[in-house]
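Notes from the 1:1 (GR / supervisor)

We went over the backlog. Supervisor wanted to see one worked example end to end before approving the batch request, so GR pasted a single chain during the call. The sequence is below; no edits were made to it. Supervisor asked that the structure be written out right there so they could see what the output format looks like.
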Amino acid sequence: MQVVTFTQAQTDLTQAYAAEHVTWLVAFSILIAMLASFASFNHVQLIRRRELTNSRVSWTLLGAVAMGAGVWAMHFTGMLSYQLPLDVNYHTGRTALSVVPAVLAGYVTLTVISKPTLQIRDVLVGGVLMGAGIGLMHYIGMSAMILPAERLYQPLMFVLSILVAIVLATLSLSVRPLLSSMLKHPLLLNLLASVFMGLAITSMHYVAMHATIFMPLSEAYQRPAVAMLDNSALVTIAVAVAVFIVLISSLAVVMRFRLLHVELGQKAAEAEARALEDRFRTIAERVPGMVYEFRLDASAQMSFPYTSDAVRDIYGVTPEEIRNDALILEQIIHPDDLSLVYQGIEESARTMQPWQSEYRVIRRTDGAERWLLGSAAPLPDADGAVIWSGVITDITERKKHDEMIYQLAFYDALTELPNRRLIYRQLEQKMAEAQREGWCGVVIFIDVDSFKRLNDSQGHSAGDSLLRQIGARLRKASSESALVGRLSSDEFVVVEAKLADSYHACVPHAKQLATELLNTLNGEFDLEGHRFECALSMGICMFRHHKVDAAEILKRADIAMHEAKSAGGNQWRLFDPAMQSGLEHRYQLEQALRSLVNHPDDQLSLHLQPQVNANNQIAGAEALLRWQHPDFGAISPGEFIPLAEETGLIVPIGQWVITQACELLAQWQQSADLAELTLSVNVSARQFYQPDFVESVLQQVAKIGPVANHLVLELTESLILEDIEEAVKRMLALKAHGVRFSMDDFGTGYSSLSYLATLPFDEVKIDQSFISKANQGDSSREWIIIEAIIGLADKLRMQVIAEGVESKQQQQALLRRNCRAFQGFYFSKPLTQEAFASLVTTQRV
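Structure output shown during the call:
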């Protein structure tokens, strides 16, 4: 049996059997073709999925079967719709064989059009193969018809059917690339392409059916003895195939929707992952340091699975260089810190506690030494490895700042020696070691003699230069283990440890050390071209098992130093407990003095020493302060007046003295014997230069009214020389209200006699030191000075009073030199106010 037989020119077509198509079967065949196309196009999307790479052939074959079966079912459904006036059966073998070209064509077509990027050539190839496969399937299926008629094909219509199949198949395949830019929904795009493909398949079938002519047989018909299918069987098969196509289409749609859902979810997850990754990278790049993940596996292999780009600045390497092997960092980490880093990592891996370490690296790019701070949290891995996630930051600048802060906090900026704070701390440590280990050490307290005078005469730059050189010499002269520091302006300290095992054995070593230091520092210093020989006072104090702190040891050394300074300086003294007793007494005296200023009337009093004229008549008195303490008894003015000056308490005490003097002068006005007497009061420099001194004195002078000239304020030469202009201004302000002034201790200062002519004094007191030294004869040097003072004062119309007159011979010598006023023990010792008043009254009788 031939598959294809064409009509001849002499064929009488009027003899052909007439046939009709059943409309609903035609429609059903078109639907089957569209369903088959829809199933195949959905398979294209499944084939393209990367997630289904391993099953791509299976999905392609399933799609090809769906398309081939659909084309076959459409064909035979169309055949069933073609009603001939004959009994038609179908050859089973050929009927089954006809599906093969359809499936193969579908497979080749799906393979071509499932490419990620569809070119025009691919569309043309797919259209040709699809059209050819449909045509081959059709004509093999037609050849399976068994009927009592001859089957012929009109040549032109035959060719046209093949061309129609190819053209329409190509157009249906072109729908996707042409409309994909307009139709974004893939399901709608597949549906539209399926409509075109279904029309292509059915159009080819029905064009080919019009090309078919069934002619009556010229001889008796004999049915072949082969397996055949009748119409009912064919309908059953066609329906089964249609159901199969529906199931395949449904499966493909469900899978497509599931994959679409998965795809959308995956895209969302990928977008979120990319966003998180981008955010992480952004954060990692903005973190001030290197964000990293470090891995230590069971075989001790180290790697950095992730590092931010900051690794280039931190270590001078790229992320790729250390991603699989971190041993390169061994050459970068400072050799002194490498073991510390490894120990920290091992400890963290063992305890699963966070790792943190400060270490140095020598950066590979420029060889710079940098300080790093690393911190990370460990997590165990399933394969026995440990993974740390953390940050490494460059703390070089912070280290520099810390070092600078430490230097500023614990070191002297001028000499670069340890300052008071560090001295106290390290001395405490050495004292603790001495008590624990049983050795003896020594503290040497050093003070520069006359340092203030150097600053005043040569300037502070010279003083600074001296201090720097002293610090350098002390470092050089001391042992490497010694603590050499600067306590304050011109005070240094040297602490030597482990001199001996006992206190007594330590003493000679300490003395020798102090002597060596003194000799070292006694040499000349070059102070900006000026040669300066330095003198120093040193105090020595040992320490071993004293139950005292560093402050107390330094205090004792300071006490010994002051003893050396009081002894003339440029020497050392060893601390003696008696020194501290004196210091404690001074402290108690100072506390008593501070308490005194609140209630001076209870303990202070004014004693009066008479001042007499040439006739030995009392003309006035000098008020002398006395202190009677309830516990200490009478305290000498030579002991408490300097302390009051040093502490500043002389100001309220001096104000009390002036107040008492004015009140006493007011009382004297009530007595004829006392009314004409003057009263002299000593004024200290600190009191005199108080801003309110003039106002406070005038308030008290108001109490004595017109006899203000009976009040005489005694000022020392050194007081006036502190600020001559201000002193003259204040003196004139008080003299305008009658107050008189006396220059006390004249001649003992550094001024010349010419100053006396420029200062508004009313009298001059010759210091008792001149009188006591003038006993050697009238030609002594002191008498020459005394005569000069008396002569100058006489010409300036100033009264002269000689202090410290203790014999008649002294008075007579002074009288011969025209001195007319005297004061001293020869006339009277200081008296109480009552005794003085009684003496004056007795003298007036």
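Supervisor's comment: The mean pLDDT is 82.
Batch request approved.
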